[in-house]
Amino acid sequence: MLEKKRSYKGFHVALFVPELIEQGKPNGRVQISAGNEDIGIRFTPDWSHPPATQKEAEDWLFAYAAGIIDCELAGGFGIDLRNE
Q1: Among 38, 21, 18, which Cα is nearest to 29's?
Q2: If pLDDT is split at 50, 70 and 90, which confidence band does 83 have?
């Protein structure tokens, strides 16, 4: 599994992209944590339409994580992400 670390608006985003993505099965993982990494969330997607490449999967996972962060910073989900 390929691991990539990025940051977005002060949050750490760790992407775990599998070498093989199968339709309808949980594959890969995204972990979002605050700057001090003491709290965060993690999700594993089920791919209804698997991406064609690992790069496409990585881009999708990061875009999804960025959307979660943006929604939470706007007062969205109440998943208790903090950027302190």
Answers
A1: 18
A2: very low
Cβ–Cβ < 8 Å for 57, 33? no
Q: Is the pLDDT of residue 69 over 80?
A: yes
Question: What is the pTM (predicted TM-score) of this model?
Answer: 0.77
What is the rounded CA–CA span in Å between residue 16 and residue 57? 10
For residue 38, pLDDT over 70 is answered with no
Distances (CA, A) of 25 to 16, 18, 47, 48, 54: 15, 12, 6, 8, 16
Is residue 1 classed as helix, strand or coil in its secondary structure?
coil
